[in-house]
């Protein structure tokens, strides 16, 4: 890899590229956050221009990969719904109580159009604040969850 | 996890969190830590930790310091006293807000939260900044001279705690008794409905006479004859004419009731359709952005029709059936209570069956509706885009998509039909079983001389009708569910509150001068922040050019000024009045809009020019067309101003369509003019023509112009350069060139490559 990556005192990532130019406050961005999260990560500067491209995270030196993973974890917020505990009503707007990989949450679904299919089994649920919840595979939900989803799909 | 839920509720109840409403455990923990004259100013309940998992934490701002407690710090409170150089930075990305506390050297701490508590966070930052400043400078805290809503910056009345504009969000689901809500549409016809009901009552009663007459026919005529008595022609004549008379009466009454009720239901259906459409037109662009045309068309077209059929046919039949059952039951009981009881025995079973199947069928039919709109959506996607489909030779793929949608449709229908097809035969079986019971019990009663043969015949005649009705009544389940599902989908539209609401106490502007002020405006689409902290003041009559890369927020800013959307934060003022307090239509009548892709409606050229002012005279239309340099080419058309333009104006060239749309804007003589890439889609010769037309249009009006080609903005008084949702430069062309900043770069890039656009794509913020 032809770049260096460090974290400064302000918690920003600093990338020094092959030509020795320092970019402060760079951000890693996944190209396919849902369908292929591990393949293709761009590092963009504050202007939004790409300064580095990473085909695969695991090809990187461990400490750089760790920094990037850390940054991605604190930037990406797409809780994956593991269980639907209940919904307030089958007509929208309705409040959903869910268990996600980031803990339990409840949110308001404004309309059926906020449930978007991504391929056959993946679903993205956008709540009233624009936070996106991911259901990676609807077939892995329990029976209650599938039955609830069935009413909305 | 109750902790999280409480966080949602608390902050929802008191978004302007102040110390009085500080939650109990927190205040118990915190109050002993405070110094004597220290007061809690605001607090924020965090719902995320720094690793973005849902958990509870707190940030509190007092007049001396900032305190925080998060799961990472455990039970201890971290604190930072006010000192110079301290800064609390607020950003948000993808639905998550971040607060960072930094000083000149480093980041001291950072906290995360979902946008659900954003208002409290903004308020906390405000308080922090005010008190930090007062602490550093030693001056008393500067209170903002007018109370301002922390979210939208709209001024608040002194006694108002919450902003009336921001608290309009509703999150209550509609009731499930959707069909009863149709009463709103039935109410105007209640007299006709009453007449229809009375006719139904009468005609049902008339149909019940014939079986009753079979009793004397059996007992007084046929059985005595079998036993050797002669037939009395007088009695027979009387009974037969009774049969004929009742049949004729039932026919007449039945005709009248069906006619009246069909008339009423058609009108209810039409009212429903027009009301829904009117409501739909008033909804904001945001609503249309999120929905598919095919789906909306299906809702207004076929769903209203389905409801209409339900009202005129099925509901009417059902009402008749119920009446008939009640009346029959009464008659049967009056003849022989015991036999009546046995006859009615299967009724509860059937009612129970109907109840069981109802639930399964309802969800099934809702699903079928959704799948059906999936099918129409494929059509609505493909047919307008047919050129692309053909150009990339993807006909087979599109056909496959349609086939898949249909297959899905079939699968869902098949599943439902499995239950449904079992239902009717079961009801028939129960009917036969019921008849069997009546026969058996009746024969037994006859043998005991409890009843006559005539009574048994009458009973059998009644109940064979009666059960036949039950069978058809069971069908009401499915049609009711279908109609309810349709009604729900229509009320979904009707219940949708426009995200650009009409003000409750509208302010009326007399003559508009055209001073526009954009104050600290932010706009978020979904979870993407498109505009951030935009401030802009435009004087009356000034021409401002908006410049920037695509995606920089130019079109969004213009959409906010037109009030196609409402700003997420901040506000837009016209002549000093918040545009949200003006009636929407009245406000927009002051705005002339010329878009990149002019949209012409089916109709004549004159009608299209007069679209914004349908009562314009011919002279006005011609004057507008002349000013827009459209007059001459219109005269070259075979029918002049009366020429029909094809659908969406396909028969005219791009430049011609654009000049018609300029004439349209000129005719309403707006104070504010918005040119959104008005010359982008035409070649440079046509552009010059259009430019001449635009120069006429711009005179004396406040103008906001967006343009690809910077040369088209040479007349602008000021240029505003936007970059990623923020204003980066403001000034005239010469000033900005001298500055050698963002505008200079844009200009250089264009000068190098005159024919290429400055943007990579020409579809400016198509998603906003």
Automatic annotation (TrEMBL), chain A:
Residues 23-152 form the DUF1854 domain. InterPro entries: DUF1854 (IPR015005). Pfam families: DUF1854. This is (2Fe-2S)-binding protein. It comes from Novimethylophilus kurashikiensis. The lineage of its organism: Bacteria, Pseudomonadati, Pseudomonadota, Betaproteobacteria, Nitrosomonadales.
UniProtKB/TrEMBL annotation, chain B:
One of its GO terms (molecular function) is ABC-type oligopeptide transporter activity. It is found in: Cell membrane. Residues 194-482 form the ABC transmembrane type-1 domain. Pfam families: ABC_membrane, ABC_tran. InterPro entries: AAA+_ATPase, ABC1_TM_dom, ABC1_TM_sf, ABC_transporter-like_ATP-bd, ABC_transporter-like_CS, P-loop_NTPase, Type_1_exporter. Residues 516-749 form the ABC transporter domain. The chain crosses the membrane at residues 193-215, 235-256, 307-332, 338-357, 422-445, 451-468. Its main location: membrane. Keywords: ATP-binding, Cell membrane, Membrane, Nucleotide-binding, Transmembrane, Transmembrane helix, Transport. Residues 1-21 have a biased composition (Polar residues). Residues 1-25 are annotated as: Disordered. SUPFAM superfamilies: ABC transporter transmembrane region, P-loop containing nucleoside triphosphate hydrolases. This is ATP-binding cassette, subfamily B, bacterial. It comes from Novimethylophilus kurashikiensis. The lineage of its organism: Bacteria, Pseudomonadati, Pseudomonadota, Betaproteobacteria, Nitrosomonadales.
